[in-house]
Amino acid sequence: MTPPHPVQDHAASDRPAWRPEASAADIAAAIRRREVSAVEVVEAHLDRIARRNPDLGALTVVFAERARQAASTVDSALAAGADPGPLAGVPISVKENIDLTWSATTNGWRGLAEAVPARDATIVRRLREAGAVPVGRGNMPDFGMRWDTDNDLFGRTRNPWNPQRSAGGSSGGDAVAVATGMSAIGLGNDFGGSLRLPAYAAGVVGLRPSRGRVPRAAVTGYPVALTLQEFSVNGPMARTVDDVALALAAMQGVDADDPVSLDAPRLRELPRRVGVVRSFGDGVDPQVAAGIERAAAFLVRAGWEVVEVEAPRLEEAAVLWRRLACTDMLMSLDPADLGMPLGRSATAFLRDSTAAARPYETTREYAEAWAQRAVVAADWRRLQAEVPLILGPVSASRMRETDYDLGGQDAADRAWQDLWLTVAANFLGLPALALPTGLGEDGMPTGVQLIGPLLAEDAVLEAGRAVEAGVPALPVPAVG
User: Fold this and answer.
1) Is residue 234 within 8 Å of residue 249, measured between CB atoms?
2) In this predicted structure, which of 103-117, 158-172, 212-226 has the lowest mean pLDDT?
3) pLDDT digits (tens, 9 = 90+) for 288-336
4) Span 55-104, pLDDT tens digits
5) Is the link from the previous residue into 345 a cis peptide, with omega within 30 of 0?
């Protein structure tokens, strides 16, 4: 099958355009006030896609006609006096591994190029019911298995700030689409930084919700790797903290298809205290450190107490996450079971990472690793009872060159060591928000993440707003 190419069949509109880089909240408000139509907003985004996507490869499929039809439905509802929802007419992108009946859910792998789902994922349905309009699919590596975005089916997603640098993975397509105004909200998922690392690379906001807050894929009769069940969550990317909060409000809540999903209770008010993790492993790049200090200063200015902490058992958490993940990848992505090999870069990543990680060889080792998670989690809970939020880097390094996570065990080790704090949040199921802190000396975005206690998204988002308020909004990147 020939891979689908982005659709570019729409004619240039002579109607007034809406700024595609506007926030989702502003877009929805303007449409609801009927200052601009949903169709005009979609046309403006389709025009941006036609101009930017061929060079960037962010979106794999573009739903030009379907998006126009969905936007027209929003406009008709408003004309009839009905409420189309809080995301009325907001263009969104949907990652290639989240079910949307408008195209195949390929997981970035050519073996699923024709796997069109029978129904939308619950989170897609909820966003559409809230008025959002899908405009395209976000690119990803095979089965989300890399920290860069490239595959044999659709090719590479390029970083719009510098095409020589990685766009991050695995939700790289959606991050680039959001950063460049092709979509206002990107819908992705995070197994080991797959929302937060691309958000850092592209200079947008990415929220990894707590385990259970946002429904995942429907549970079927087919077994799913335990690490996917425990470490991976769906979540949003956008250009502002308020926009990811808006998307979270629409997506969250119990789903009968997902036994882990829940209606999260409101937590007691937490102390306004943030612990800063300034270094780990081989240290943090000076530009990364400067971004952390800027974020800490903005929090202090907003009335938060900021103290220095060490993340409990950080290296142990990162090692356990990696060994468990690689053990499961070897079992679940065996080409003999898949019926077709993985793509070239995914095969190299799996080989290098599993060799470096030393997968568990016995059921006893595997079980003991899961049991040790409770020990790590207890130490984190004790710390976060006193210091609820943890501020630190998404990556200890600046965003590296394309394919930086390939090239042997040393490259695999380096890519993983940069992300110890990031994968610890996955290991423990905690909410984490990545957001930009300006531009570095290299012209690339700098950024931080805030990690909260379980189900404390409100506190994480509040602190994120304080950081965001101190940072000038990034321009739309012009490369590509």
Assistant:
1) no
2) 212-226
3) 999 999 999 999 999 999 999 999 999 999 999 999 999 999 988 888 8
4) 999 999 999 999 999 999 999 999 999 999 999 999 999 999 999 999 99
5) no
Distances in Å between the alpha carbon of 261 and those of 100, 257, 265, 318? 20, 9, 12, 25
Catalytic residue among 23, 93, 194, 232: 194
Q: Provide the terminal-to-terminal Cα distance of the chain, rounded to the nearest Å.
A: 28
Q: Which residues contact 276 (CB under 8 A, 6 or more apart)?
A: 292, 296, 306, 307, 308, 309, 390, 391, 392
Q: What is the dihedral of CA 251, 194, 397, 358, to 10 degrees?
A: 140
> Would you state the structure tokens that stand for residue 347, as one six-digit string?
């095969």
For residue 76, indicate whether it is catalytic. no
Any idea where the domains of the chain sit in the sequence? 24-470
CATH architecture of the domain formed by 24-470:
Alpha-Beta Complex (3.90)
> CA–CA separation, 324 vs 329, rounded Å?
9
Q: Is 39 helix (H, G, I), strand (E, B) or coil?
A: helix
| 170 a catalytic residue | yes
Q: Which of 219, 207, 196 is nearest to 250 (CA)?
A: 207
CA-closest candidate to residue 251, choices 27, 243, 96, 425: 243
Angle at CA 456, nearest 5°, toward 316 and 236? 90
For the beta carbon of residue 438, count every other beta carbon within 10 angstroms.
Answer: 18
SS (H, E, C) 87-148: CCCCEEEEECCCCCCCCCCCCCCHHHCCCCCCCCCHHHHHHHHCCCEEEEEECCCHHHCCCC
What's the mean pLDDT in 206-210?
98
For residue 9, pLDDT beyond 60: no
Q: What is the SS3 assignment for 207?
A: strand
Which of the residues 23, 103, 170, 210 is marked catalytic? Answer: 170
Q: Is the Cβ–Cβ distance between 105 and 147 less than 8 Å?
A: no
Known catalytic residue at 95: yes
Residue 476 in contact with residue 21, Cβ under 8 Å?
Answer: yes
* Rounded Cα gap, residues 161 and 181, in angstroms: 14
Residue 18: its pLDDT value, please?
65
CA 471/CA 349 separation, integer angstroms: 36
Closest CA to 459 of 432, 425, 422, 420: 432
Q: Which of 23, 37, 93, 95 is catalytic?
A: 95
Tens digit of pLDDT for each residue in 345-403?
A: 999 999 999 888 999 999 999 999 999 999 999 999 999 999 999 999 999 999 999 99
